[in-house]
Design brief:
The structure is a single chain. The chain is mainly alpha-helical and 193 residues long. It is 69% helix and 2% strand. A two-stranded antiparallel sheet has the order 1-2. A hairpin with a 2-residue loop joins strand 1 and strand 2. Helix 1 packs antiparallel against helix 2.
Length: 193
């Protein structure tokens, strides 16, 4: 292999890899939506089907909370993925790096949380090989590692987000109420009486 086999410019491999990985991360996120939706559907069916001594699981407040929390996480994650895909369509993976990293971090969390709740609600059946839940659960830790450790993406998100902010100009935070009251008093006078 000689210099004529070089793809892109010399030293630019990381940029090429990152451009390719961005789309892959969104693809993993889309597959995560499908996987957690499957686990959620199983959880809801089980809650309505499983009889206990005093009724079905769906009547239990803790089960209802698990279903509600899972529903919320899935919907929030799904909208994040859709928004990220839309941003990529509008610009590029480079312009949507923060959102792509957010999808990667959120995918690991929603996968872990929803699959755990579904597995837990199924009891021993949930950890057996008689449902797909145990296999999904084995995949949960991988979601936090593949495409780079979650912590690296969290740091990347924070750095990009913080670029849109600046330190407070003085000793106190810009929302320090005594300073705001003093400005209002100077501008509008004393209306306390």
């Amino acid at each position: 292999m000689g210099a004529d086999a070089l793809l892109g410019e010399e030293g630019g491999a990381f940029a090429v890899a990152q451009a390719r990985l961005g789309g892959g991360r969104v693809h993993h996120a889309m597959r995560t939506v499908a996987a957690v939706k499957r686990a959620f559907d199983m959880m809801c069916e089980r809650a309505l089907s499983r009889q206990t001594v005093d009724g079905v699981l769906a009547d239990k407040q803790l089960v209802q909370a698990a279903i509600a929390d899972s529903y919320l996480q899935i919907q929030q994650f799904r909208l994040l993925v859709l928004h990220t895909a839309w941003l990529i369509d509008q610009s590029s993976t480079k312009e949507a790096r923060t959102q792509i990293a957010a999808c990667k971090v959120a995918a690991a969390r929603v996968f872990h949380d929803v699959v755990y709740r579904a597995m837990h609600l199924h009891g021993a059946l949930g950890v057996s090989t008689d449902t797909p839940l145990a296999r999904l659960w084995q995949s949960a830790p991988l979601m936090g590692i593949m495409d780079g450790p979650t912590e690296v993406h969290q740091a990347s998100i924070a750095r990009r987000v913080l670029r849109g902010y600046s330190p407070s100009p003085g000793l106190w935070p810009s929302e320090f109420l005594p300073d705001k009251r003093a400005v209002a008093h100077t501008k509008y006078g004393d209306f306390s009486s």
